[in-house]
Structures are given as C-alpha cells and as structure tokens.
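Quick illustration for those who missed Monday's session on complexes.
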Amino acid sequence: MIISTINLKGGVGKTTTAIALATAAVRDGKDVELYDCDPQSSASLWAMMAEEAGDPLPFPVTPANVATVRMAGHRLKSTEDKWLFIDCPPNGRVMDEAADCSDLIVVPTTTGPADMVKTFETTDTLGARGFLFAILLTRVLPGTLSLKQSLGELADRDTSYFDYQIPSREGLKNFFGNSFGDDLYGYEKVYEQIKQSIKEDKEAYGAN
Ligand SMILES: Nc1ncnc2c1ncn2[C@@H]1O[C@H](COP(=O)(O)OP(=O)(O)OP(=O)(O)O)[C@@H](O)[C@H]1O
Ligand SMILES: [Mg+2]
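Prediction with adenosine-5'-triphosphate bound:
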C-alpha cells in the first residue's frame, strides 16, 4: 500500500500528516516505512531528532528519489505487504512519480484562502491524471469563517475529502522531533477512513 502526502503549497501539514498516519499504521500492526522525498529533509530531521532524544519514531524514515520511489511502486502498490508513506516536496519530478505510484494521495491543507486555491490547483491536476485522492483539512479552528468557507467550497466542487479534520493544536506543533504519544489528534480516524476506502475499492473491483 502506498500513501503519499502531496500539495503544491508548502507548509500545509504534509510532513506532519505523513508521520502521524505512519504512526497510526504501526499501532494497527502494519509493517510501515516512510520515504522522505523532500530536499528539505524535514521527515528525516524529525526522525534523527527523535532518535537523538531517545524516543525514536516507530518506523524507518528513508531518503528517497525518483528512481527509488518508482521501484517501490513496482513492489508495493496495491499490496498489503507493507504500508509505505511518501512525504513529498511541493513540486518536482519526485512528487509526480509518488503521485503515479500511490494507492491514495492525501492532500493536506489549512483552511486559509491562499492554501485552498493551491489545494484545488493540486487536486485538479491529480484528478485530470486519474489519481485517487482526498483533501484533509488541518490546523482547523472550529467555528471560524475560513472553515465554513472551505467546507462550502469542498461541497460546491463535489471533490473528495475526509470527514475528519485535524484541529489546530500547539501540542501537535511541538511533536516535531518527537514520537507521538497516545493522542494522535484525529489522525487515527483519518487512517481508519483510509483503510475503509481501500477495502471498499477492493470489494468494488472484486480483488481479494
Ligand atoms: N494540526 C496542527 N496544529 C498546529 N500546528 C500544526 C498542525 N499541523 C502542522 N502544524 C505545524 O505547521 C507547520 C507546517 O507543517 P508541516 O511541516 O507538516 O507542513 P509541510 O506541508 O510538510 O511543509 P513543507 O512544504 O515545508 O514541507 C509546522 O510548523 C507544523 O508543526
Ligand atoms: Mg514537509
């Protein structure tokens, strides 16, 4: 199974989402690896800092490139052997390759108007290429106008998005460089929804 976090906008929660979902998958007993395709190496730095703090992430984080991503696609796409999460930079060939080999693309975004514009640009591109994706609202502040507007836009566009939203939490910010504790801030529910959609996809196509 290959799940990528992709958005043409930077700073929308791609790395946080990849690490949190990978943690949820480990807690569900899956064999998990995370590929870090971003030249900024945020996920690798996160793993290194956690290791140095004596609280290593519960899965390996491996730097990856266009070739290693493509090979992983050949091995792991649509298999249950391993759950590979790919954290992408906001552009470039490696992002395109990750999109191509993913079973599902998670498109995290904040509810800010600038992020939403870039997010729809991202999903228009992914949709045109026939990829399976779902938008995930993150850093959500309940009751705000921007949340209301974003939910309205999602409904208007009839696009695919997760029912669950990740709240804005200072605690989540502070997890950079640490493993998650018991609280996965709603990412466990997003993971369950991913599992469910994969199951439905398999049933729809008659795979076992
Ligand atoms: N739910 C949240 N609540 C509060 N802060 C958050 C939340 N999710 C992410 N952040 C913070 O927002 C910032 C951007 O998150 P992150 O690095 O995951 O985004 P990104 O899309 O991977 O960025 P980049 O494009 O630079 O790779 C970080 O400082 C992170 O700690
Ligand atoms: Mg990142």
